[in-house]
Design a protein that fits this description.
The protein is mostly beta strands and 207 residues long. It is 10% helix and 66% strand. It has one helix and ten strands. It has an eight-stranded antiparallel β-barrel with strand order 1-2-3-4-5-7-8-10. The two termini are 28 Å apart. Residues 21-25 have low confidence and may be disordered.
Length: 207
Amino acid sequence: MKYKNHILLLIIFLTWNIAQAQDKINSKFSLSALGGIGYAIIENDNEPNYNLNSNNGELLINYHVDEKLGFATGIGLNELSGNGFNSIGSFYHERTFLKIPLLVTFTNKLSDNFTLIATLGLYGQNIIKDEYRFLNNYRTNIYEGWNFGLQASAGLIFNVSNSLGLGFAFSGQSDFSKFESNNNAGINDEQKIKNLNSIGMILQLKI
């Protein structure tokens, strides 16, 4: 978690300094940094479902077609953790995803001070860390690979200046493809994230 906090502080510092120098910028591009907490439901085909806590973040670059419509992509990191059980036994599960979203963005300026934003689109995500701690043993990479899904978000931004905005956002995602267990994992199953909901902060910078 420490390296994520350092990255977030660096983004805030750079954003603030750039915003001071570009207070009157009028660009078709903006940069958004989002960080949130929430929970996810892991849905299995043959094993019991279970819930995990989520710490997630995304860094997006948005191209504004006009004042209301845009397209965005970037990179996201999602850390899941929590307890569950399966046919091997009870466990503590930690999993980290690297996510690449492709989004349509919507912007509605409510006033000089507030802007309503929303996103909708697809993502692909890859498991980069997967650890199960059972009572008497420890296993890694029971599931691995890529899967795909649909995500959406909505938020409210306070316009600190013409180039900088701060606010909060609600987001959700759901996989429509599944991860398969490895042949040597001791489990023969497929799973996906049925629902992942989170709330967090958003920082937006016009560049």
